[in-house]
């Protein structure tokens, strides 16, 4: 019992953050990819998103690496575009992170060749598109001459 003029505060121990599975996912967010600085912004946003979903360090690194490769491709080869982060959830409750990378470039003339390791149209190592495919759980590309390119990749969190 408190004395006159005193107050008490009951505590039930330290507050724990809500479990990743029970929190509402963040709203989808779209980031421009028009400058070198935009590439850094995308990397930071994707890193934060992987943490929000509950990925471990290895999966965080995989997703950020894939996002960096895809965003750089949109910037260098597609003349710029956007990266959208979305947070799908399976009926079982498993959470994921989906990246949709769009550009307005010329499209990929030979998609099969572009997905082959070592293929490059510039000075890179040729691991970008194929590497991103290996790093993610789901991978789709929609492209055509004069249509630009849309790459959608998803990584699912391990429960």
Question: Can you walk through the features of this model?
Answer:
With 159 residues, the chain is α+β, with helices and mostly antiparallel strands. Helices cover 31% and strands 22% of the residues. A five-stranded antiparallel beta sheet has the order 1-2-3-5-4, with helices on one face. The longest helix has 20 residues. It is globular and about 40 Å long. The protein starts with 28 loop residues before the first strand and ends with a strand. About 8% of the residues have low confidence.
Structural class: alpha+beta
Low-confidence stretches: 6-18
Number of strands: 5
Average pLDDT works out at: 83
What's the end-to-end separation, in Å? 45 Å
| Helical stretch tally | 4
Sheet-strand content, in percent, reads 15-25%
Shape call: globular
Write a brief caption for the model.
The protein has 159 residues and is of the alpha+beta class. The chain has 4 helices and 5 strands; from the N terminus they run E-H-H-E-E-H-H-E-E.
